[in-house]
Amino acid sequence: MAVSEDSTSSLSMVLLSSVLGLAIVTRLNNNFDGYGVMVYAVRKLPMKSLLLLQMRELDTSVDALVEEFEASWKPEMCKYSRKLVEFCCSKALRSVCCHIAELINNETFSRFTFDMMLAWEMPSSTDEESYMVDDGPSVREDAFVWLGTLVPLVVDMVNGKFTFEALTASTAYRLYFPAYDKYLKEIDKCMKHLQKQAKPKGVELADDEFILHVEGTASTQRVIRHIGGTSWPGRLTLTNYALYFEASGVVSYEDALKLDLSKDIEQRVKPAATGPWGAPLFDKAIVYESAELKDPVVLEFPEVTSSTRRDHWLALIKEFILLHQFLSKYNVKLPTQAWEMHARTIFGIIRLHAAREMLRISPPNPKSFLIFALFDELPKGDYVLEELAESLKKVDSVHPCSASSILRCTNVSQLVVSNLEVADAVGERISVSGQAENLSSLESTIDQVRQEAKEVVAAKATTEGLKEDGVSESVLVLMELLKPLKNVLPWFEEVLTWQKPATTVIVIATSLLIVYKEWVGKALAVCLLWMVAKMVQARLQGIRNKYNKIVLSTASDKTTMESIVSAQHGLKTAQDIVQMANISILKIWSILVSKAPKHTDMVMMALTGLAIILAVIPFKYILMAIILCCFTTSSKLGKHAANKQGNRRLKEWWDSIPIIPVEVIDNVPDTQT
């Protein structure tokens, strides 16, 4: 009787589970830390006849498998059971990855990899019940990320924790098998859907260029390109190298406009608002700017309510711009390394499409599934990219479960690169620690960045309420925050006006001594240490617990009419200040361009004399003279000896400076001078 291909694949998966289960049960006992794994493996142990068939297929035995593991295992490694699980899973998956295109849509593959994650978590006999809830066993975050180190199709270990949070936000951050199975099936549907997309008209895609997203067709939502005051609907296609827009014609699409995202030039994409006649009314567009383009390209993604489509496209385009910048910045030249990074980025896009289909009611944040768009914004995300580049350069060949090999097996990629050598899945020796040793530094950096990102999000959340305040509330808050300065200003006024002569003399003597001895740096150091002491004092006194919030009152004892008059006076004062600033700037400009020659001559003579003084006399003596002048002019003796006539002449001289006329017009001038 003929056996179908699906049945053969299912049987193969069950047999692989047999090898994994028996290997664990054979070596684990109560002396090791994996009792829960042993119990779980026993529950999943299939028939002995199937096991014998699998032994014949892999040309190995359980004893040989365990001996191979123990040959490289050392007691100081600890966690014998987890290392054995990792070794067996790696051994089994290397046979599966070669046929992953036929297996991914099969529930047996989903169950197999899900069971691997459960086994890796190794619950103790007391913790085993924590997996059994109303909806069955569930997987935690670490196991999901660990699977990404073996099968990057499911998740990438670099952003795996962010992906897990996005997928499990509605299930208390636990991944259950029904959701996991649906997630893999959506990935398979997405890959098959992308293979059916038509190529852009009038262009020839490169051998390693693949279509990853298309909109603007009859079966998808509209995409509109804005050129000045005109709008052109069309089809928008994204590949891992470029963005193509084809304007809709009468019968078919016109030749595509290509925006190359891979060139090492200055280019960026940002959100924008569009509307009729160029009015920025609808915030649903993106603007692509490049050094090669004279005018930016504006693309709108119309939606009824939100701007989810725009944000989705914005993240995808930015991801590939950052990908090529990453390859250029870290000098990734080898084809194996560059294509591995391309494949991982492509899988990130596919996973994002699958998650959006699975979570249509509440679409996830696109950046949770993208590597470069995510870490480009996270604090210290550049550290993660540096570690990623270092780990990427350590790859010498493409093994069967790498992203590039899986992409080739899924028929999304038909690329054939002559110098890509796929390692033998059966004969190659697998390390006990797998990839953990090579990725430990990267994982620690990711954890640090993730923790700091949470702190930044929590800090930004505290500022959201303040950003929503209006102008009056913002001014009120500012005045309240500046109140401590009001207590300091009277003290300075008392010192300058000699209301406390003893304090004034001490300040003068100290200032002159610091300037004369050139102790300015030491004085600043003392001030900084004084600030540190005040901060320590505030911490010891628990002031942060006393001031959990600042309470402001908008109540006033003025009547409505008095408030209106006060506001009018305040507006008039602000207007006078602005006018005075404009007049002063125009007078200075008149002096600089010799609009008033007599005044310009006087200023040039004064500046020349000042330059001679600064060149001849040491600067510290000039500072000492300025300090003495400031304190003496505010004293009674200084006020008595002040030359009021000189101040009057200076004011008259300033008032006699003419300014350049200012003309305000409505139309745009042809030339600007």
Tags for this model:
single chain, 673 residues, alpha+beta, PH-domain like, 8-stranded antiparallel sheet, disordered N terminus, transmembrane, DUF639
Q: How would you describe this protein?
A:
Among the domains are: 197-329, PH-domain like (Roll), CATH 2.30.29.30; 469-493, no CATH class; 501-542; 573-655, no CATH class. 57% of the residues lie in helices and 8% in strands. It has 27 helices and 10 strands. A hairpin with a 7-residue loop joins strand 8 (267-274) and strand 9. Helix 1 (5-27) packs antiparallel against helix 2, helix 8 packs across helix 9 and helix 14 (381-393) packs antiparallel against helix 16 (436-461). The relative contact order is 0.06. Mean pLDDT is 78; it is low at 1-57, 123-127, 129-134 and 413-430.
What fold name goes in the CATH topology slot of the domain at 197-329? PH-domain like
Distance between the first and last residues' Cα: 91 Å
Query: How many E-type strands?
Result: 10
The secondary structure category is alpha+beta
Q: What about the largest sheet? A: 8 strands, antiparallel
Shape: extended
By CATH, the architecture of the domain at 197-329 is named: Roll
Give a short summary of the structure.
This protein is an alpha+beta fold. It has helices at 5-27, 35-44, 48-58, 62-72, 80-96, 100-103, 107-121, 141-150, 160-167, 177-195, 308-329, 335-358, 371-375, 381-393, 403-409, 436-461, 464-467, 471-481, 483-496, 501-517, 520-540, 543-546, 560-592, 597-616, 619-633, 636-641, 644-655; strands at 138-139, 175-176, 211-215, 223-227, 230-239, 242-247, 257-260, 267-274, 282-290, 297-300.
